[in-house]
Automatic annotation (TrEMBL):
Keyword annotations: Signal
Protein name: Insulinase family protein
Domain of life, source organism: Bacteria
Leader peptide range in chain numbering: 1-24
Annotated family: Belongs to the peptidase M16 family.
Disulfide bond among keywords: no
Source organism phylogeny: Bacteria, Pseudomonadati, Bacteroidota, Cytophagia, Cytophagales
Residue ranges of every copy of the Peptidase M16 C-terminal domain listed in the record: 216-392, 687-862
The keyword Transferase is assigned to this record: no
Length: 956
């Protein structure tokens, strides 16, 4: 898994980063290496690396900025090691690995880590599998115990019942992320046609449903014994650690794991495509035609992969790129065009993708791509464009290793696949070394006149939009049926086995000293025009993240023109009075900065991120965008067209349909929050440029606004840079129209919306609960911790772990000035819709009455310890400042909240749950296949069922 942002991530830093890279394609067994010292001004990833006798390579990285530790285990096995007929198995095994192990309690891996205040997960790609945790440092020994037990002692605990349950969970994941969404089958079609049948990339990582259903216990055991030896893995531990102590603990916990068989390295194998293939897919969920062209390219770490990534930026990375100019500006066929290089262990792919406007011929799109490529050949590119790419990527480099977890994962992958935990610094050199000649050479070698696989995805019944001559692609379609049938699975009995004998005691270790969360120091000030400024000086990376937040946003939209504020926000990025949109984009990129403007339910926010040394000029651009909008009529027309395209594309998205109708039912038709912030096709159709100017003139004011700054910068530097904004932005009063009281649908009502042939049902349940200024909000958030906050919550434990009905289920108490909801949401297997609704009802009914003293202690531990890692990043710290300014909170409010939590007892939790989360007060929304699921939902509704269309209108 080589992400394009990571490959390019160090473009500007190469000169300070050491020796040139080796083209290592297999795992290198390095000798123990001393901690590398960073050169002054250079980017580095210092580490110590050693290898256990069983072959496990261990990388240690110290970072004492927060009292947390991250663990990453990268196993060198992905879907490229699977056998035909057993696709999806590497990913499936990742799921199985999170079940049980010999020396940990049943469910510990999925439940306890979050209760200790940590986070954990895993992922699989074509070439590898990674597992990770990040925890408060007091749980350090406990993660050693869990991680080592998973790697070395899990296989005996696998039962047929656990296997059957996890098969359903993975199938739910496939339905949710691939089968029940638009364009979800494209990757499957591309792989089957790009690579020959015997190529390890011929199938998708998720695999096929029939193959997943056929997985057996012997398959799991064989896969484990063949690929999960410690000699086929890297362990990275990063964070607040002591190197000597950590080495001893790694030896104690991991040293006894038995070495596995040698795993033969796979050699790079390009796709070998000999002719262009054109295919089309009729997509039940797509509302927009999409064209994708994929050219075979080169594997990761090869020097051409860096030049290809630069090429992708030059072709489609900004407004001056030839593909953008032709596709978007001149021919107006689509809102955007994307190009990217994806390199894997064995091969690479260069992709151009366009999701076009409704009813657009994909033949026109294809011709426009060819025209853009020809223009690139003849016109080339400027040195300024290369400088733009180099500048913005330095920021990406630091962003990519901002957290201890991101560093652990990056170092683990690079050690396992390149033999060097700090290969990111060599990436920098390789990217820096890309020349103009390299770019043109790879264009000619991999794209010009070369065969490719092209997919035309068209809405169902619109085959006429596909490229002429395209062949119908074959995609497996699961049949949706009514009733749970024989797929109802559960936890099953625990495995009976004889424990592996070990020299070291493998019982659960205790906690170390508990680290307490302390609020970072917050400074604040006010400008002469009334703008409030809040800041946190944070020096972990040489970046600054900041925003200007202006109250109002969507809440100030006229009801009939919902989406106005969102368009205002977008227009502020479309150039200034002194700069065209292309000139503004270039100015931002040359600073290595990013600036975005967004409208939320209750504010418009200008947000930026930049190198600390470029804070002044970046702020100057923000000021220019904010105070001198361009109001370009052509750009407005383009934005409206793009918005219409995007809104059309959401029409068959079950998750969007469920969310939007849930809000309509909570707030009622006369409240602005019953409309999405982007508006609807009906409300945005009549919005004019004059409407945007009127909104801007009435509502964009420093009065009530706030600026939030986090990063490697002090208050005095910020104050000096802000002087022009304080004098140039004149204050004016903002008139806020009073919204009508929300008109929530009657409690207990159930609403069904039909999405024919949906493979999953999206479920929402909730009610309006309380405002962000309500002192009970903190209590309600605490009370939700064990219900639906993360995978350890009871909703996921019940619906996924016990029943296998879903990939995940969650609940939350939202925070805003207006009355906000308590929400439960999930996406379940279609034929488990009725059963899932009943389980949710029973769980919510019993949650408050059964909340016990043990639950109180578990909730306190989860929340208190979780705070130590919840606010690590600059973005998270920015969120602290936003809450302080919006809700007038104390600079120490999180510490105050912790004190409130410690005083709460069983009665406090139970009364809060009863007040805001009682099942009898909830409204339910179900979006799914009416033909098979309506009758099940009707039974659940007990006569309170209403059928709606996708826009919320009742259907007779």
């Amino acid at each position: 898994m080589r992400h394009k942002t990571t490959i390019l991530a160090a473009l500007l830093l190469a000169a300070a980063c050491g020796a040139s890279p080796a083209a290592a394609q297999t795992k290198a067994k390095a000798k123990p290496k001393p901690v590398a010292a960073a050169k002054a001004g250079a980017f580095s990833l210092p580490y110590e690396k050693f290898t256990l006798e069983n072959g496990l390579e261990v990388v240690l990285h110290e970072d004492h900025s927060d009292p947390i530790v991250a663990f990453a285990t990268v196993v060198h096995v992905g879907s490229n090691r699977e056998k035909p007929g057993k696709t999806g198995f590497a990913h499936f095994f990742e799921h199985m690995s999170f079940n049980d192990s010999e020396n940990t309690p049943v469910g510990a891996n999925r439940k306890l880590i979050e209760e200790w205040g940590g986070q954990r997960n895993g992922s699989t790609w074509s070439d590898g599998t990674q597992y990770y945790e990040v925890v408060p440092k007091d749980a350090f020994d406990k993660i050693m115990w869990i991680d080592s037990d998973r790697l070395g002692y899990m296989i005996k605990t696998v039962t047929a019942e656990a296997l059957a349950r996890e098969i359903q969970v993975v199938k739910n994941e496939k339905r949710q992320n691939y089968d029940n969404v638009a364009y979800g089958s494209v990757n499957e079609v591309l792989r089957k046609n790009l690579y020959p049948a015997d190529h390890p990339y011929n199938w998708t990582v998720i695999g096929s449903l029939p193959d997943l259903q056929a997985a057996t216990l012997p398959d799991v055991q064989e896969f484990y014994h063949q690929y999960y030896g410690p000699n086929n893995a890297t362990l990275v531990i990063a964070g607040d650690i002591n190197i000597a102590e950590t080495k001893a603990k790694v030896q104690r916990w991991f040293g006894e794991i038995k070495k596995g068989p040698a795993v033969q390295a796979l050699k790079p194998r390009p796709a070998g495509l000999t002719q262009t293939k054109s295919l089309y897919i009729e997509d039940n969920f797509a509302r927009l035609p999409q064209l994708q062209m994929v050219f075979p390219s080169i594997q990761e770490y090869h020097r051409d992969s860096y030049a290809l990534q630069v090429l992708s930026e030059l072709l489609a990375g900004n407004r001056t790129s030839p593909l953008y100019k032709v596709m978007v500006e001149e021919q107006k066929l689509a809102p955007s065009v994307v190009a990217y290089q994806n390199s894997s262990e064995l091969a690479g792919e260069f992709t151009v993708q366009v999701r076009a406007n409704p009813n657009t011929s994909l033949q026109q799109v294809h011709s426009a791509i060819e025209e853009g490529l020809k223009r690139f050949e003849t016109q080339g590119f400027s040195d300024t464009e290369l400088a733009r790419i180099r500048a913005k990527i330095e920021t990406d480099l630091y962003s990519g290793v901002e957290s201890v977890l991101s560093k652990a994962l990056q170092m683990g992958r690079d050690n396992e696949f390149a033999g060097d935990p700090a290969h990111l610094t060599k990436d920098a050199q390789m990217a820096q070394a890309v020349t103009r000649a390299d770019v043109m050479r790879v264009y000619n070698q991999y794209l010009k006149g070369k065969p490719y696989v092209m997919t035309s995805v068209v809405p169902k019944g619109q085959q006429n939009l596909a490229v002429p001559g395209a062949q119908l692609a074959t995609v497996y379609q699961e049949k949706v049926v009514a009733g749970v049938q024989n797929e109802d699975v559960g936890q099953g009995k625990e495995a009976v086995f004889e424990k592996t004998v070990t020299k070291n005691d493998r019982s659960e270790p205790g906690f170390l000293q508990t680290p307490l969360f302390k609020m970072p120091a917050v400074w604040n000030a006010s400008l002469a025009n009334g703008l409030k400024v809040y800041g946190i000086d944070n020096r972990e990376i040489p970046l600054v993240t900041f925003d200007v937040t202006i109250p109002g946003g969507h809440s100030l939209d006229p009801l009939a023109k919902a989406g106005t504020a969102s368009l205002v926000a977008q227009m502020l990025t479309q150039g200034t009075a002194r700069k065209t949109p292309a000139q503004l984009e270039e100015a931002i990129d040359l600073l290595g900065a990013s600036i975005s403007v967004n409208s939320t339910a209750e504010e418009i926010r200008v947000q930026a991120r930049c190198l600390a040394r470029n804070f002044g000029p970046t702020l100057a651009l923000v000021q220019e965008m904010l105070l001198q909008p361009r109001w370009d009529a052509a750009e407005f027309a383009r934005l409206k067209s793009s918005l219409a395209t995007n809104l059309k594309g959401q029409e068959a998205n079950a998750a969007v349909i469920a969310s939007q109708n849930f809000n309509r039912l909570l707030y009622g038709p006369n409240h602005i929050l019953s409309y999405p912030t982007s508006g609807t096709l009906a409300t945005t159709a009549g919005i004019t440029l004059d409407d945007l100017k009127a909104y801007y003139n009435a509502n964009i004011s420093p009065s009530g606004a706030a600026m939030h700054v986090v990063g490697a910068i002090d208050q005095n530097t910020v104050a000096a840079a802000l002087k022009p904004l304080g004098t140039s932005w004149a204050a004016k009063p903002v008139s806020v129209a009073q919204q009508p009281a929300p008109a929530q649908a009657p409690a207990g009502n159930v609403y069904f919306i039909d999405v024919p042939d949906a493979k999953q049902s999206v479920l929402y349940a909730g009610r309006l609960a309380l405002r962000g200024t309500d002192p009970d909000l903190t209590k309600a958030t605490f009370a939700n911790a064990l219900l639906g906050n993360g995978s350890s919550g009871r909703l996921t434990q019940l619906l996924r772990i016990q029943k296998g009905y879903t990939y995940g289920a969650f609940s939350a108490v939202q925070e805003q000035q207006e009355m906000a909801p308590f929400v439960v949401s999930t996406s379940v297997r279609a034929n488990a819709t009725g059963a899932s609704l009943q389980l949710i009802r029973d769980l919510l009914t019993n949650y408050g009455p059964t909340f016990s003293p043990t639950d109180v202690e578990t909730a306190k531990s989860k929340i208190m310890k979780g705070n130590t890692l919840a606010y690590e990043s600059q973005g998270a710290k920015l969120g602290i400042l936003r809450r302080i300014s919006k809700f007038n909170k104390s600079p120490k409010f999180l510490e105050d909240d912790q004190q409130q939590l410690m005083k709460m007892g069983v009665a406090d939790f139970q009364s809060t749950i009863g007040k805001y989360m009682a099942e009898k007060d909830l409204v339910y929304v179900v979006v799914g296949d009416k033909a098979t699921q309506y009758e099940e939902v009707k039974k659940f509704a007990n006569g309170k069922l209403t059928l709606l269309d996708a826009t919320g209108k009742p259907v007779n």
